[in-house]
Design brief:
By secondary structure, this protein is of the alpha+beta class. 15% of the residues lie in helices and 29% in strands. It has 2 domains: 31 residues; 90 residues, no CATH class.
Length: 171
């Protein structure tokens, strides 16, 4: 007698592999959505402020007068561009920071970042280059000499507490 049963090669059927692929894809989308809603992921439009460009001289038609000889042309001087740094600010769910995103500033300058909680929220934590600082309504950086990253998180005000006008957090 011969065995008429078909043997399966390759393990899973194509339908099962497709179903698993779709399930993983949907799960990945849900994870991204949850991260965005929790404030763990934040997207800001690229306005070009974080890209440093060197101005390109305009190209014009050659002058109608004869070109001066090389001895008449002054030597170009190399003037270094001012040193600049990036200040990157991320505000989590429940409020905003101004400015938010990446801002380029010149070395030695000062910048103040203002944190504005939404109604029912307060400034919970402020982290500067990975280190916690006292939560407040703003943070000022003076004499900038390096790139800085600032993260601010907001939390909901407990229902029985009302934040005072001067307090950054319930108390």
């Amino acid at each position: 007698m011969s065995d008429n049963r078909k043997s399966k090669k390759g393990g899973m059927s194509r339908k099962t592999k497709t179903s698993i692929t779709y399930a993983v894809f949907i799960l990945a989308i849900l994870v991204v959505i949850l991260c965005i809603m929790s404030g763990a992921l934040h997207f800001t439009p690229n306005t070009g402020k974080d890209v440093q460009t060197t101005p390109t001289p305009e190209v014009t038609a050659p002058p109608s007068t004869p070109t001066p000889s090389p001895s008449d042309t002054p030597e170009p001087t190399d003037t270094p561009a001012p040193e600049s740094y990036s200040i990157t600010v991320f505000a989590g769910h429940g409020g905003t920071a101004t400015p938010e995103g990446t801002t380029t500033v010149e070395a030695g300058s000062t910048i103040t970042i203002v944190f504005t909680p939404d109604d029912g929220y307060y400034v919970n934590t402020v982290t500067v280059n990975g280190e916690l600082v006292d939560p407040a309504d703003s943070y000022t950086i003076t004499d900038i000499s390096d790139d800085v990253s600032i993260d601010v998180s907001f939390d909901t005000v407990p229902p029985n507490e009302q934040p005072s006008e001067s307090a950054a957090f319930p108390g």
